[in-house]
Here is the input.
Amino acid sequence: MARVVVDVMLKPEILDPQGQAVQRALPRLGFGGISDVRQGKRFELEVEGPVDDAALARIREMAETFLANTVIEDFAVKVES
Amino acid sequence: MTARIGVVTFPGSLDDRDAQRAVRLAGAEPVALWHRDPDLRQVDAVVLPGGFSYGDYLRAGAISRFSPVMETIIAGAKDGLPVLGICNGFQVLTESHLLPGAMLRNNHLHFVCRDQRLRIENADTAWTNAYEQDQEITVPLKNMDGRYTADERTLDELEAEGRVIARYLDVNPNGSLRDIAGITNEAGNVVGLMPHPEHAVEPLTGPTTEGLGFFASILKRLVDA
Here is the structure.
């Protein structure tokens, strides 16, 4: 069974206060040198059958219509082993 | 015969009963609609109430948007069916792309609950025609994901076409761009509003009764039609 990963991130121009809150907490915790943090979502899909072009096209369609809201988010699809 | 106004209940809806009560107080007949039933039971208009449908999983409104009842409502709205989305209902409308833009986590990351002053900036829509242009009202606001966001071009378009129907006054409670509290579609039949007019319809339970105008508006529109 193959795994396909869909990463969803807020578009660069969209304010991410959760990422900012994480970034601001870092120095206090002793983790210096991080100038920016953006927080996103990762979906791991276990795919039945072969991950061919048709299957990937369906997954892209799924990401575009459901997993991501493309008004505010970008997504990337990649196949893992 | 009085107007029939449907109020959808999703799993996790909170304000469906209050919305029904507001509809009744305005003089219309509330009709309960169920998320799994695509039948709109011949209602003349629909309210999508506040709450946390499907637990806000994935994104607020993202899963509700694909429920059977929404299929019918989306098709109906494109044909002119009046639809008011309040809070979570507004989120469902942006996720459905019946309204432009999207709703994001409040910029301060806290849940906000307050009596909020608003200015009604478009008193021509199906849901705002009982108000005066630029009338100021106070109704409760309570949300976690109320930061209205759209790209600059969309925001300019909304402003130019008078489609910002309500704007926050005094404070911006959630980081909403251009203080936007509510918008409408081009035709004026679909309205999304983050604050809760259905909680301001009776002196006993609301800060004012100034929310009743949204429900009086739709009744007026349906009776005049």
